């Protein structure tokens, strides 16, 4: 009989299992796995960098670290809306690199067990459909689950790593 206690790492993994951070854009509810999230920020001052992709709003300085900011609306081919008091930046880590995601507002963190997740049907060839992998049923609502690893192409990821200060 094994009486060895669980390591802290496995306990942390268990507590984050099936947890999703929910945010909204145009009254549509999106979510991604909490394990990607490092921090939620009120909208900081963004320094624009000319010549970058339209969805890249610029960079921010957080505790001496320069982090690129992606406007998720623009990444999803939605029209730009001016930022407001509920606009947040979600700091995530993708392939070991920090990225800030500007979203309309953060809603909550919910548990979505695997039996409540349905793979998204392939609907059209829109650019944003590549980011969506499933839908999650939470009570009477449906969350659109996004794959953060697909937000950037390999070329875009390299471009972000070459930004000044990052």
Automatic annotation (TrEMBL):
InterPro entries: CheW, CheW-like_dom_sf, CheW-lke_dom. Residues 17-157 form the CheW-like domain. GO terms for biological process: chemotaxis; signal transduction. It comes from the Bacteria. It holds the Pfam family CheW. SUPFAM superfamilies: CheW-like. One of its GO terms (cellular component) is cytosol. PANTHER family: CHEMOTAXIS PROTEIN CHEW, CHEMOTAXIS SENSOR HISTIDINE KINASE-RELATED. This is Purine-binding chemotaxis protein CheW.
């Amino acid at each position: 009989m094994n009486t060895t206690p669980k390591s802290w790492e496995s306990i942390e993994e268990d507590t984050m299992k099936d947890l999703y951070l929910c945010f909204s854009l145009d009254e549509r509810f999106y979510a991604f796995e909490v394990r990607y999230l490092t921090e939620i920020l009120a909208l900081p001052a963004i320094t624009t960098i000319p010549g970058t992709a339209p969805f890249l709003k610029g960079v921010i300085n957080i505790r001496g670290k320069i982090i690129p900011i992606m406007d998720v609306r623009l990444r999803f081919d939605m029209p730009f809306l001016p930022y407001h008091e509920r606009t947040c930046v979600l700091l995530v880590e993708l392939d070991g690199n920090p990225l800030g995601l500007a979203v309309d507002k953060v809603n909550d963190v919910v548990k979505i067990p695997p039996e409540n997740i349905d793979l998204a049907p392939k609907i059209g060839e829109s650019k944003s459909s590549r980011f969506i992998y499933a839908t999650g049923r939470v009570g009477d609502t449906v969350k659109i689950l996004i794959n953060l690893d697909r937000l950037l192409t390999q070329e875009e990821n390299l471009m972000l790593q070459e930004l000044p200060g990052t």
